[in-house]
Amino acid sequence: MTMPDEQVREAYRAHSGELFGFACRSLGDPARAEEAVQECFLNAWRRRESFDPERGSERTWLFAILRNVINDMGRQDNRRPAAARLETSDERLPSPDQPFERAMLSWQVEEALRRIGERHRQIVVEACILGRPYAELAVALGVPEGTIKSRVYYGMRAMRDAMEELGYES
Amino acid sequence: MSPEHREIRESLGAWAMGHLDRSERAMVDEHLATCAECRREAESLEQTGAMLELVDPALVGSLSEPLPQPPPELEARVIAGMRDPGAAKPHPRRYGRRILIPAAGILVAVIVSLVLVLGSNNDRAAPGGSGQQFAFTSLPPGVTIDGRLEPKATGTSIEVKVEGMKPGTLCRVYAQTGAGKLEPAGTFRYRYDAEEGESYPATLSTAWDLSEIDALVIKAGGRTFSTSI
């Protein structure tokens, strides 16, 4: 993000939808999500010199900024008794066990699920998230049970690859 | 990879999720004890499986639906804010402490009549420096809305101060242009610090020049308020 318009526009078009979706989920309010995304990109612009592609992706960097913006909004709300409150951590860099980090990771997993193909998504959702028995899925899909097992394997690999594309580092 | 090896490999997802029965699991465990490649794969898939536990089962139906998208005008606001950091600060600043920075070289001395579209027609603008102040007067009892328009290189910044509304009320601000079209200028929530007895202004922006704005419209609490500029 070293050019005033082109690269920021590019970054905005690449990531604003996902950032906005996450902000909507975190804040529960599209208007406040707009505010958060706007502030996120303005902060990114102000701090553009600190972006180091070798330390992480642009997307990861923007999510980290958005996290801080949302945390700040939560702190501001907490100082105003009448305003809506957010259940966010007061620490700037909370551990993954804390609610906000967990929410961000779960959002990332959901985004990965959106990115894998419909066939992978179906088997991952049905077998791994909803816990439907393989025998039941085999009947429903008209394939042998062994095929369900191998589809689970390839579906989970697709998920792992999608998570890596999204910047998740295991 | 032998067919047996492939079969074991393709069981690793079920193994990672704990879906294998005891005998199947024992067979895979035996293989993992001697195959480093499959062991790495299994450990990696275990992590993936753990992450899947974060997904709320109630949300899986929405995974094939499109994500909510930000409004088209948000991109323009972001770009305007980068070009002119004072033009689009979404975070409210304290009204009494703000520093107005007139655009260099622009000398504007304007006293503008403000006319409420809804209600009486005798609102008046206060004299301003380089920008233009506005004040709504036909409002519910106890409510005031005023602020200031500032010409910027990229359009106009709009500082709005609300008093007396229910804290948290969502306010949508529009600039009405010559064509009668409402151009969204942003949204904010009315914020009030009960301890300090102080309201917070919101600073928004529009790409339209001040001279092109005919009226400001604010939609809040299910009502629409408007003032001519």
List the helices and strands and how they pair.
The complex is a heterodimer of chains A (170) and B (229).
Chain A: H1 6-27, H2 30-46, H3 58-79, H4 99-115, H5 118-129, H6 134-141, H7 145-165
Helix pairs in contact in A: 1-2, 1-3, 2-3, 4-7, 5-7, 6-7
Chain B: H1 3-9, H2 12-17, H3 22-32, H4 36-52, H5 73-83, E1 132-136, E2 144-152, E3 155-163, E4 170-177, E5 182-189, E6 191-193, E7 198-200, E8 202-206, E9 213-220, E10 223-228
DSSP E strands of chain A, number: 0
Oligomer: heterodimer
Number of strands of chain B: 10
- End-to-end distance of chain A: 26 Å
Order of helices and strands of chain A: HHHHHHH
Quickly count the helices of chain B: 5
Q: How are the strands of the largest sheet of chain B arranged?
A: 1-2-3-8
Mean pLDDT of chain B: 75
CATH superfamily of the largest domain in chain A: RNA polymerase sigma factor, region 2, helix turn helix motif
**What's the SSE pattern of chain B?**
HHHHHEEEEEEEEEE
Structure description:
The complex is a heterodimer of chains A (170) and B (229). Chain A is built from 7 helices and no strands. Chain A has helices at 6-27, 30-46, 58-79, 99-115, 118-129, 134-141, 145-165. With 170 residues, chain A is mainly α. Chain A folds into 2 domains: 1-102, Rna Polymerase Sigma Factor, Chain: A, CATH 1.10.1740.10; 116-170, Arc Repressor Mutant, subunit A, CATH 1.10.10. The two termini of chain A are 26 Å apart. In chain A, helix 2 (30-46) crosses helix 3 (58-79). Chain B is α+β, with helices and mostly antiparallel strands and 229 residues long. Chain B has 5 helices and 10 strands, in the order H-H-H-H-H-E-E-E-E-E-E-E-E-E-E. In chain B, the strands form 3 sheets. A 4-stranded antiparallel beta sheet of chain B has the order 1-2-3-8. In chain B, strands 5-4-9-10 form a 4-stranded antiparallel beta sheet. At the A-B interface, helix 1, helix 2, helix 3, helix 4 and helix 5 of A face helix 2, helix 4, helix 5, strand 5 and strand 6 of B.
